[in-house]
Amino acid sequence: MSTTWVEGKASTIAEEQRLWPRRVLVLALNLISWLGLGLLMARIIGGAGWSWAGVAIMLLYLIALPWTLLAFWNAVIGFFILRFHHSPASYTNPALNATPADALIISRTAICVCIRHESVTGVVARVKAMRESLDAMSQSADIEFHVLSDSARPDICAEEAIAFGNDPRLHYRRRTENIGYKAGNLRDFATAHQERIDFMIALDADSLMSGAAILRLIRVMQANPNLGILQTLVTGRPATSAFARIFQFGMRHGMRTHTTGIAWWQGSSGPYWGHNAIIRLHPFVAHCALPVLRDGLPLAGHMLSHDQVEAALMRAAGFDVRVIADEFGSWEENPPRLPDFIRRDLRWCQGNLQYLRLIGKPGFRLMGRFQLCNAVAMYLGAPASVIMLTVGIANGFSGLHGHTPGTLAFGLYFGMLILGFAPRLLGVIDILMRREDRERWGGGFRLLAGAATDAVFTLMIGPVMMVAQSRFIFGLLFGHRIIWEAQQRDDGIVPIREAIGGLWPQFLLGLGFGLATWHVAPASLLWALPTLAGSLLAVPFACFTASPRVGAWMRQVRLCAVPGE
């Protein structure tokens, strides 16, 4: 055991002691907010007289709240750090302070690109770009590129063999069985190469990193031997489709404040998102083997969402898991169409719900269990909200409804909207207050125009995802599940038949809620319109945001443009 490792361990222990007051503060802020909003809802419901429906609505509201509140407070904390600290990333991640920017790289690193039925041309282009970026750096480093394939289709396998098999600077390996999905693919590689490789940079098929970012990750890992996983803040690459363009504009602003906030109080028990991260191989192989859920359908089988479990296991073994909360050359591509976005999200949903089987198992620290709980809570709000609306409507039809305090209800409604928009809004405000950054985003007018577009987009997509997630979770109870397949990454239209076939539940539910609201409480219909619009207009929204003409127009006027476009 090296002296450096022991010193790193002692530093982590000292930091953990400093972090607990921050964690208590975050817990207090969330509990106070949760109780305050709960009391406000209780007063609104109590104005009509308590009933079984009122109790049910109250409980469902309390279930739906925590994830939204935590995201809000993370963003608020992150905003103030971004505004008042000269180096937010170093302040929230002490590992960066111990890393000389020009340190000699003496370790061996493998950059692993995981693919399954992907466009070979796109993968080749991204690998080539990363190699050229590294070659342009005046720094010698022992870095290998590996393409780890789980493809099974004969035509794609043949393409891969031609594209990757004849490149002497690229290592290509294809598994004949997709055991454990992507996590199993990476683990097979790590197990086979742990004796000669120090670090592994895990990339998805759509991932891209600059040479400078790759070398920075390696240097930080070298300088901090107690660091097990180092996650980057991943940003969306400039997109051509309107859907991806608007989504990544808002996500980029929201993730910057959110990630800075969580890094401040999570510290060495930070997030890992499964890609665009560097991993220390020895502890990963020794401690991060994923369990196979043997019983309890429909959540049985291999883990679909591997990242949070691997991070929790790495931290339980005594190694740090940290995130660098700034943008420095780490990119991904986002789904170009709404149907593709829904499919990806539902796969994450199924994977996150598998954590329910692990939360009570031995072998995790408190923060590890929290990360698993938080990942589950991310998807509990949708079914809770749908059931809550259904109960409220049913209560109205039963004649048990009565007068509710309109001003309080109005305030709570818009308060919840503010909570949901806060991470993105605070990110935009932060950029507006920085002249140089404001210009990088195209100036104040374009930034505000993009923010307004994103606000409408968020209002539209929110109900669509709420219904999709709820329908999927209810379907899990009857054995319906998703299998891991390749994602659609290329732009394309959404034919009207595909849109109707995939989004009819959103339309029917929105229509039903709208008619019921008009019958039960017509004065509330105007309030409900922002929520109902997304469901009622889901089909044209999907077609419109996938239209090549709309995407081309947005690029032409630079609406929702991002730096580097």
Automatic annotation (TrEMBL):
GO terms for cellular component: plasma membrane. Pfam families: Glyco_trans_2_3. Belongs to the glycosyltransferase 2 family. OpgH subfamily. NCBIfam families: PRK05454.2-1 (NF003958), PRK05454.2-5 (NF003962). Pathway: Glycan metabolism; osmoregulated periplasmic glucan (OPG) biosynthesis. This is Glucans biosynthesis glucosyltransferase H. It is found in: Cell inner membrane. One of its GO terms (molecular function) is hexosyltransferase activity. InterPro entries: Glyco_trans_2-like, Glycosyltr_2/OpgH_subfam, Nucleotide-diphossugar_trans.
